[in-house]
Structure to design on (218 residues):
């Protein structure tokens, strides 16, 4: 599914807290109540208003995002889509770690996503020693050109993050943000879709017909 990134004042988007495409209710300002205990034990409280801040409340999880000057300031990983649920767990961990740090370190996030893609190649049956060789091998096995470009984008940008390079990721954070979508697209094409088709095939095509098809193709 297409990721609808959160945009200021937009009525619905993929919630940065729960990841569901949901309706958002906007506040005009944020009012808070504070309370503290004085040394003599008296309880003191009062209001203060954050008139420059606005919030959007998700209709699904009821959590909020906080916005200042038209930009989301909480949660920090708000602009990044959730990982594809079909990603293997250790790769999902790398993805989520990258998501948590991308707003403060786009370079760190790009390096982690490169690591995620390296592990993904192993998951797809490659050796994992050299990511360049792994992608080459996948291309030989018939990897579609768009998937090759997605893999190579994460590889090149990730390399650039850890070696002296020409692209300054800290000045071009959007380059790092785009890589998250690429990792999800790669997973959708190479893991989720084959899994869905296989499940359907094994569930609804009778076994005798399947073995007939296998004989035809062998
Ligand atoms: Zn939500």
């Amino acid at each position: 599914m297409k990721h609808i990134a959160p945009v200021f004042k937009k009525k619905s988007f993929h919630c940065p807290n729960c990841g569901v495409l949901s309706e958002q209710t906007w506040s005009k300002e944020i009012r808070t109540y504070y309370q503290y205990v004085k040394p003599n034990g008296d309880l003191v409280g009062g209001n203060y208003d954050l008139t420059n801040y606005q919030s959007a409340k998700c209709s699904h999880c009821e959590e909020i995002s906080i916005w200042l000057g038209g930009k989301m300031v909480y949660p920090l990983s708000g602009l990044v889509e959730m990982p594809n649920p079909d990603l293997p767990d250790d790769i999902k961990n790398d993805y989520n770690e990258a998501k948590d740090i991308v707003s403060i370190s786009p370079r760190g996030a790009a390096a982690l996503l490169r690591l995620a893609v390296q592990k993904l190649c192993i998951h797809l049956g490659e050796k994992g020693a050299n990511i360049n060789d792994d992608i080459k091998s996948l291309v030989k096995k018939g990897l579609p050109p768009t998937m090759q470009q997605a893999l190579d984008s994460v590889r090149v940008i990730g390399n650039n993050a850890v070696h002296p390079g020409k692209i300054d990721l800290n000045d071009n954070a959007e380059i790092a943000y785009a890589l998250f979508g690429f990792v999800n697209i790669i997973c959708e094409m190479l893991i989720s879709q084959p899994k869905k088709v296989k499940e359907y095939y094994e569930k609804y095509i009778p076994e005798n017909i399947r073995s007939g098809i296998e004989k035809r193709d062998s």
Summary: The longest helix spans residues 173-204. Helices lie at 89-101, 106-123, 131-140, 145-162, 173-204, 207-217. The mean pLDDT is 90. The chain is about 45% helix and 20% strand.
